[in-house]
Amino acid sequence: MERDYDVIVIGSGAAGLSAAVAAADAGASVLVVEGDTRVGGSSRLSGGHFYAAGTSAQEEAGITGDTADAMFEHYMTLNQWLVDPAVVRRYCDLSAPTFEWLRNLGVVFRKENVYPSGVGSTPRGHPPEGGGEEVVNVLDGLRSHKGVDLVLDSRVTGLLQDADGRVRGISIGQDTASCASVILATGGFGANPEMIEKYYPQAAASGDWGWYIGTDGAQGDGINLGESVGATIAGHDRGLLLVTPGFSRDLEVLLPGWLILVNKQGRRFANEAAPYTVLGGLIQREGGSAWAVFDEDARRLAKPNPSSQAYWVDDVLKRKADEGRICRADALDSLAEMMDVDAVGLAGTVHRYNADVQAGTDTAFLKTQGMRTITKPPFYGVEVKPAIVCWTGTGLRIDAECRVLGRDEKPIPGLFAAGETVGNLHGDRYIGGGGSFGPCIVFGKLAGENAATHSAGLND
Ligand SMILES: Cc1cc2nc3c(=O)[nH]c(=O)nc-3n(C[C@H](O)[C@H](O)[C@H](O)COP(=O)(O)OP(=O)(O)OC[C@H]3O[C@@H](n4cnc5c(N)ncnc54)[C@H](O)[C@@H]3O)c2cc1C
Questions:
Q1: Atom of ligand 1 nearest to the CA of 437
Q2: If you measure from the C-alpha of residue 24 to the centroid of ligand 1, how many angstroms do you get, rounded to a whole number?
Q3: Ligand 1 binding pocket includes 46 (Cβ within 6 Å)
Q4: Distance from the CA of 40 to the center of ligand 1, in angstroms?
Q5: Does 344 score more than 90 pLDDT?
Q6: How far, in Å, is the centroid of ligand 1 from the Cα of 235?
Q7: Radius of gyration of the chain from Cα atoms?
């Protein structure tokens, strides 16, 4: 049957552009449709770190012996096996070969930048020179070079489907384009409050503290488009939330070591310097908020630094206390009353912590960074919540070939998905920096290859 393209890719982030390049390399005629006025989506704003095991960059850095097996074991254990093993396995197996593909395409990854990006000591985080923007630029340059068509400012509103269930094209309002395979690469839904409410209640619970760091195009269209042709959804209430005092819409990834976090009982419940990949989850278990407590000396010495410019800085903290946004009191029991936490618990916690600081060991939570005693009034308490949405993890269920699955467990013919719009890859805990961008490239490339093969099969 005559058709406009073999493959149509919806979305031009890391996943969509990887898919387009791979599909073109496999001989398909390809169109990329992008709702925004430029390519790149959240991928362009991203650090672009790539979480992978067994790469040439690791080897150059002297990190030998890391394997897909080790990555798989770590990934599954961290997530208590509450993810789809076959999809995770595919990511682990393809992480190194796809990393090499991207490196060979011209994205620069330096051996000295490979780092342990998550919960675990094995360095698997690979930051590219120029961040996600450079990855987008390299892939988009290749897209253009390979003759892949691109239309911008065109938000896809529907999928065309045959009576037998086969997806055979897209619609943008009244306009249509036909194809043999569609790849949904529309990113997440962080910019869509209704979808946050529906699919990511933990994030919705932070109310107006919550904000999303990515593109406005992250409207969850892939989920809606997929559902309109019978796709199933996986990964409820998943994503990455960073902890914030909610003063402004600034992104600070880490809390300073000089404060302690306490719960309603006035007790510490976490190493405050725990990886950002787990700290939000620990606060979530305390009911979604906690109090950061520190003293006047800590406030006075809190100077801006590369990781803290916006919140944990002396004059900001003073101003927020003057405004009443931070509790300030001359005694710990008054502070406890203002924060509505147990005063006995808080006094005991601070006493133990101060003794630990003086002895040089955090006997409860093993914190090593920036510890200071809490002794000099006035004392401060500021509420913090996991509220900054970095990416969302609920989305379409795919199999290990990137085919979108229907309720009957069968792939919906002609429909593929990759990137943040996929839901059965992420568990309750983020494996680490690069654990979202990496799979976008891995599954983007795989979806492109498989969509091209599927289209070629229909030609035979
Ligand atoms: C600031 C920031 C830093 C980050 N840093 C990292 C990091 O270092 N490591 C990591 O692993 N992850 C990181 N992430 C997350 C990661 O970058 C994203 O999960 C990933 O880039 C998503 O890629 P994608 O291709 O799936 O979606 P996107 O890059 O968001 O692309 C989707 C595109 O689809 C378009 N689109 C949506 N709906 C339609 C429609 N109906 N029709 C046409 N087009 C449509 C959108 O406009 C968008 O351009 C970061 C995210 C942000 C925002």
A1: 11
A2: 21
A3: yes
A4: 7
A5: yes
A6: 18
A7: 24
Q: What is the pLDDT of residues 112-132, one digit of tens each?
A: 999 999 888 899 999 999 999
Enter the pTM of the model: 0.94
pLDDT bin (cut points 50, 70, 90) of residue 1 is low
Q: Determine whether the shortest distance from the Cβ of 390 to ligand 1 is under 6 A.
A: yes
Is any ligand 1 atom within 6 A of the Cβ of residue 43?
A: yes
Q: Indicate if 82 and 104 belong to the same structural domain.
A: yes
Range of the domain at 265: 242-388
* pLDDT band with cut points at 50, 70 and 90 for residue 460: low
Residue with the smallest CA separation from ligand 1 atom 46 is: 217
Distances from the Cα of 179 to the Cα of 70, 456, 458, angstroms: 40, 11, 11
Q: Looking at 388, 419, 447, which one is the last position of a domain?
A: 388
Angle between helices 332-339 and 343-359 (to 10 degrees): 130
- Distance in angstroms (rounded) separating the CA atoms of residues 3 and 400: 27
C-alpha distances out from residue 449 to 6, 388, 430, 445, Å: 12, 35, 27, 6
Q: Is the CB of 169 under 6 A from ligand 1?
A: no
